[in-house]
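Quick question, first post here. What does this chain look like in 3D?
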Amino acid sequence: MAARRELTLFLLLAVAGWTQAFLATSLNTSDPDVAWILCPEQTTGVTRDHKWITREAIRRNLRQFFLDYPPASEPGFNVPTDASLTELYHAYYGAAASPARFIKAVNSIAASNVKADSLPQLKYDPEIQGDGEDLQSLQDSMATRYPQILTSILQDEAYTAARTFIGLTLHSLQKFYSHSTWVEQGNKGILEDLGLPGFLYDDLAGASDDVCSACSSPQGACAGNVIKGVGLSSGYYQYDDPAATSILIPKPTTEGKCSHGGVLDDSSSVPAEGGINKDTASPCFSPHYHLHEQAAELAVQATVHYLNVLLDAVGNDKYRRLFDLYHGSALSIAIDTTGSMSDDIAAVKQQVQQIVDSTSAELFILSPFHDPTVGPGLKTTDPQVFMDAVNDLTASGGCCGIEEKFWGGLQLALSMTPNYGDIFCFTDAGGNDGELMQGDIAVAQQQHNKVTIIYSFNNRDNRDNSDNRDNNRDGGARDSLTGVDEYQYLADSTGGLFIPSDKFDIDAITPILGEGVESQSVDVTMVKGLTGPNDLDLPIDDAIFDFEIRLSGTLTTALLRDITGTEYDLTNEASLDSDPNIEIIAYSPSLKAIRWLSPRYGQWSFHTDSSSTYSISVSANSTLSFMGDFSILDPRPPHPHYQLVEGRPLINTVYYIDVVLVGYLESGVTDVNKVEYVDKSGTLLRTIPYHGDVDDEFYIRSEPLPEEPFYIKLYGHVESGNVFCRLLSVIMSPVETSVGVLATADDLSARPGETATGDFIVANFGLDSYFTITGTDDKGYLVSISPDRIFLKFNESGIVTGHFSVGSSETPGTVSIITVTAQSETQIQSVNSAISQFLVLPLVTDVDTPTCETSSSPDCTGFNLNGICSEKNWTISASLQDTKSGLSVVYARPDGFQTDVSSFSPGTTSTVSVTYYASCCTTQVDIIGVDVQGNIGKCQIDMGTLGGYVFDFEAVSEGTTWVYLRWSITPTEYDIHKYTLLINNDFTEDVRCPDLICYHNVTYLDPCSLQTFKITPVFTVSGSDRAGEPAFTDANTLDNEPVPPENGRALNFTETTVTIAWDGANTKCVSQYEVCYRPFGFTASEVCERTSLTTYKMRGLEACAAYEVVVTSLSPLGVPSSDALTFFVNTDEALPGAPRNMAIPTITNVSATITWEDPLDRAQCIDRYVVSFKENEIVKAVTPVAVKGEHMVIIQPLEPCKNYTFDVAALSKSGYLGPLAERYESTLETDPVPVWSLELAAASVDSLDASWKFSTACVDHFYLCFYDDEEVGLTCEDVYESTYTLSALLACTTYHVSVSTVTPSGVMSDKIWQSSDTLDLAPGEPQNLRITKETAHSIDIQYDPPIINPQCTVEYDIEVIDLGVNEKMAYRRRETRLDSVFHDLEACRKYEARVRATSRGQLHSAWVTAYGNTSNEITSEPVGLQLLSATKTSLTVAWFRPETNPDCVLQYELQWSSDAGETGSQTISGPLEYEVEATITGLSPCTGVDLSVTAVSAAGASPAQTLATTTLC
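> Answer (accepted):
Ran it through. C-alpha cells below.
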C-alpha cells in the first residue's frame, strides 16, 4: 500500500504540480507536513490564497452588480458591504432560493485558478506564472486568452469553458501582484489594462538592470531589498523538480536580480540573496510577508476590474449566466422521437405546456434523438420558442434495430444544461451508442446534473442484451448496446431516478419535472435497490423550509414518524391528502413524491417494507447545502496545497474532502462532526470524525476509500442543537485507473479547417491489463485516439493522443466538451475519464477594438444635482464599427429612457448607429460595441458624478434602542441644507452634515425589531430647498430580554396530545416562543419547538402521563427570556402497553422467578401488574405487583417438570388490562417416583391391558417391559400414557410386565412388576397318540403337544374305555405329562385310549383315540359251578366266567368222573357267555359224579372249579 501511495502521489504530481504565487488553497498549518514550510508560530495576520482572492473579488463585483441592477420589485435594494456570497444571493433572490448553482460557478472559476498551479503544462510555464522577469509573456498569454473567454460566451454560451479560461487568467493576474515588484515600487493602485489585448508595460527592467539588493539572510523576513525607481521585475524561482529543469528560468549571476525567496526556493541563496514573494503572511515562506495584505488587496481589486471588463463585453444577461445567477432552473428534456413513441410524445406535449406555465424556468433545453441521428438541440430563454419546438416534435422512423441513440441524446442535453440542472429523458428502448455512456456519466457527475429516465416498456425491448450491458456498464465500448440496467446505473451514478412504467403516466411524472425546474433542493439522504424491511433516520434541521420524500417502486409499508411520534402512512393517499401540512406532488403505484411543509425539527424515522425493489430519496429546500470534492495534499516544493482530484477517485487512497458549506452562516451551523461513506442501500462503509473549524470551505482528511461505490454524507449541528445531514447525490465509484489531461489550451484549439492533437495520460493502479481507450466530444471534432488500446502494468502510465479536426464552416468560439475514457479489460472497476474543452479559434486574430464616435456631447450644466436632474433630458447619437471581425454585440449601459440601435446584425462590419435617451440623472454612460473576437470599443459619456447622490447608506452598528447610520454623498456645487431621515415610515428627523461621509445615531427605537430608514438630501437651490432622490436601508435593533409568558394551561387533551395555551406579552421583543416539554416521573427526550402563536399542540405523548411544559419567550434574534413559564399537563388514560423484556431468569423444580420491564407504550397508565400462570389450562393468579420497585415475582409452589405459561399484563387505575407479555418455561426435574397400582387385564386372547397410577411430577413418559415364561429376553417400549395395551401376544400365556417412570432428561424410576395371563383359547388336538406298551393288566400311552395353541394346554384329559361287552369307562384322569400308564386293566381286553388337551379355563380340544389289547394271563377258576338239572343219564351244569381275566378264556375244559367209573371231558368254546351251561350225557343213573371245570387261556388253564352231584335215579 505504501508503494502504491508513493506512485499515486508521483503520478498526481507529474500530472498536476504545485507552483503558485499566493497559496492556491488554504492549508492547515498544524499539519506537520506543511508547518515547517509556513512556520505558523512566526506568522502574523491572515494568509489570503488564490481561492479566497477570487471569491472575494467576485463577491465585491456582484454586490455592485446587484446594486446597479436591483430587483424590479425593489428599486431601493441595498445589501451590507460585508455580505457573503450566499448572503448576497439570498438578499437578491430570496431566503428560500438555493445558491448552490451560483456557488458552484464561483468555485469553478476558483478551481480553474488553482489548477494553474497543479497541471504540469501550466505550473512551470513563465507565460502563466510570470516568474523569472518574464512579465511580458504573462501579459501576452492573458491577452491571447481574453478573446477566447469572450467568444466562448458570446458565440457558444459555453459558460463552463469560459469559467475555466477566466480562472486561468485570474491566476496570472493575481500572481503579478505577489511575484512582481509592483507593490515594492510604491504603487498603490492596480495596473488596470493588465491582461487585456493591446496593453504594454511602461517600464520593464532589462536583463542588465539591477533590481534587488541582498537581504541580510537568504531566508526569513526581508524589507527594502528592492531598488526604487528601476524597471518592473519579478523574482526567479528554482527548486528540485526534474520535470521543471528545462523550463524554469535560472537566476542570472549578475548579483542584482531578485529571487522568489522562501524555504523552498533554491535561488534565494544566489546573490542577491533573499526574495520578494508576498504569497503568505509567513516570513519563512514569504520574505515580503509584511506586504502580503497589500498585494492581496490589489489582486482583489485587479480581479474586480477584470470582471467589470467582462461585464462590459458580454452584457448583463450573459454575465448572469456566467455565474448561474437566476432563480429558476433549467427545464432540460431529452426525448426519443422514434415511431413507437408517438403516444408518449403527444402526452409530453400536453404536459410540458403546463410545466412552462406553472414554473419559473429561465432556461429551456430540448434534445431529440432517435436512430441514426441526434438533434438538433435547442437552448433558449424564450418559453414560446421552446414550446414551438416541442410541438413540432413528431415520432417517426427508427433504424437498424430496436435501440436508439440514447447516449448521444443525453450528451447533447448535457452540453446545453447548466450545472445542477436536472435532465429528464423519455424513451421506450435501449441505446445502441453505449460507447458514449461512461463519458456522459462523467460529464453529468462533474456538472452535478441529476439524470432521470422515464422508461416506457414496449415490445421493442424483448431482446436480452444482459451480457452486452454488463460489458458496457463496466465501461466497455466494443459492444455498444445498452438497456434497462444501464439506465438504472446512470440514475444511481447521478442521483436521479429510473422510473419504469407500462406506458408513460405523464400526469404523475409532470409534477416531478416541475419540481426539478422550480426547486433548488438539497439532498438529505438517498437509498436505492432496497428489498424487504428498512429503517431510516431522517434528521430534519432548522435550516430546512420543507422536505420531500420520493419513493420509486411499489411498497407495502411506508411509515414516517416525526419527533413527537406522530405517524404518517405514505401508502394512504387519502390520509396524506387530508393533512394541510402535506403536499402530494405525485402519487402513482410506482412513484410517489410527498412534501412536508413547515416540518417539526429533530430526528424523524422512516420504516419501509416491500417484497419488490424500491428506492427512497429525501430532499429539502434549505438555506444550507453541501458541495464536496476529493483533493490530495502534496507538501513538496515549490508550494503545498490541496489539489482537486478530477474524475473518479482511486480505491484505498487517502484523500482530503474539500467541503464547501453553502449558507452555513445563515443556517446557524455550530459544528461539523463527521463524514460518512454509505453505499446505495444505506449501509455504512466508513465514518470520518471531524473536530476542526467550520468555514465557507475547509478540508477533512478521509480514511482510505472503500472499493464499492458510495455516497458522501456530512453531519453536524445547528444552533438549536439539532443534527443536520446533507448528502452528495453523485455516487463516488473508486477505481484503479486515472486519466489526466496533458494537453494545454493551445493544444486543444484550432481554427476552422485546421487539425490539432492533444495528449492524455492513463495510469494503472490495478492488475496488469490492456486498456480500451475511447473518446467523445459533443461537436464531433475528435477524429480518433491513438493508441486506442494500451497495455499497462501495475503502477505504470502511458500517453494517448487525441486527434481533432475542425470543419471549415465551424463558428469561432464554439466549444466542444471532450471526454477520454480508459477501461481495463481485466478489472471491471478500473474505468475512469478525463474531461476537457476544445475551442474553435478565429480564422484571423483581431486585436483592434471597434470604433465609436459621438455626434455631440450632452450638457447637464445646472441640472447635475440629485433632485433636479430629472428636470432635463438629453440625447446622444453614436456610430460604432468594426471592420475586421465585425460587431457581435451593441448596447448601452446603464439603461436610459430608450436606446435605439439601427442597421445592426451580428458580425456586421458596417456602421451601426445608436441613439441614447436619458435624463441628467444619468451622468455616466458607456455605448459599447463588442466585436466577434471580444474586443470592446466604447463611447464614454462622462459628465461627472451626479452631485448630491447618496450611496453606501447602511447601518454601522445597532443597539437595543438605537441604530448608528452612515452614508456617503457625491460632491456637489450646491449647499446641502439638511437630510430628512424618515424612520419606519412613521416619523422624520432632520440631520445636518456638510461632509461627504456622514454619520447619525437614531435613538429611541423599539428593540427587537426591523427599522427602516429613508434618507433624502435637501439642497439649497436658488434660495429654496430642493429634495434629491432618497436612499434606503434597514437594520434590526438588538434584542432586549423578552417578557416571559404567563398563565399556561391545557385547553384539551387526548391519549397522545395536549393542546396548551398561554398569555404572551404584547411586545416586539417577543417574536416567538420556544415550547419544551418532557414527561414527569420517567426518562424521555425533551422535545423543543418554536412557534409564533400562543397555542401549541403537543403531539406524540404518552397516555396517562404528566408533562412538564416550559415556555420561553424569544426575541427576533433568538434571545430567550431569563424566566420561563413552567406548568404541568396530563394526557388522558389509555390501555397500558405490553410489558417489555419479560424473562424467567431463575427456575427450580418448585418455583419460578419472573422479571419484566415497563412497556414502551403508555407505561404511565399502569397502576399495578397482574401475573398469572397456567399448566393444563388451569389459570392461577398471583397477588398483583405494584408498579414501583423492581418488577419481579417468585411463583411457588410449582410442580417439577411441568410446562408452564407465565403471563404478565399491566392494569390501569381504572381497571383496563393491557395486552399480555407471555413466556413459556418448564420447572426443573426431581427424582422420578415409581408407578403404583399396576394392573393387567386380559383384553383378548392375544392382548393385555396395562394400567397404572403415577405421580405427574417430572414424568415425561413411561418405560414398559414384558416377557413371558417361555421367552428369555425382554420386550420394552416408551409409553406416553398411563395405560397401554400389549398386543400380538400369545393366548393362554402368563406375561410379566414392568413399568418405570422416565423424566424429560431420561432418568428412570424403579421398576414395578405385575403378571397376568392372556385369555384361554382351546388348544389343538394332541398329536401322535400311541400305545407304547401293553401287559395283561396295563397299557402305556404317549402323545405329543398340540400344534395349535400348544401354550394353551395346561393338562390333558385321558380316558381308557373298556371295549368289553358292556363298554365301560375303565379309567379317567388328567395329566400334565405327555405319557401315562393305565394299570389294573382286565387282561385280554380291548381298550380304547383317548386324550384331549385342556386349557386353564377348561377349554378342550377334540379327543384323539388309540386302541390297544391287554395281554393273556391265566384266569382264575370259573365261578359258581352248579347243577342246573339232572337226569338219570345226564347232568346240566352251569358256571360263570372267572372273576379274574375272564376275557382271556378261550375255552372251558369240563371233566367229570362218576362213581361208576365213568369219566369224560368236554371242551366248551365258541362264544362264551358270562354264564356257561354244559350237559353231560351218558351217565349212569343214580350215580355220583365229580365235575371240574377249568378256564383255558392262551397262558394256560386256570384252577379248576369242582362240583359233586348225582344223576337222578
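The longest strand covers residues 1010-1021.
DSSP finds 18 helices and 84 strands in the chain.
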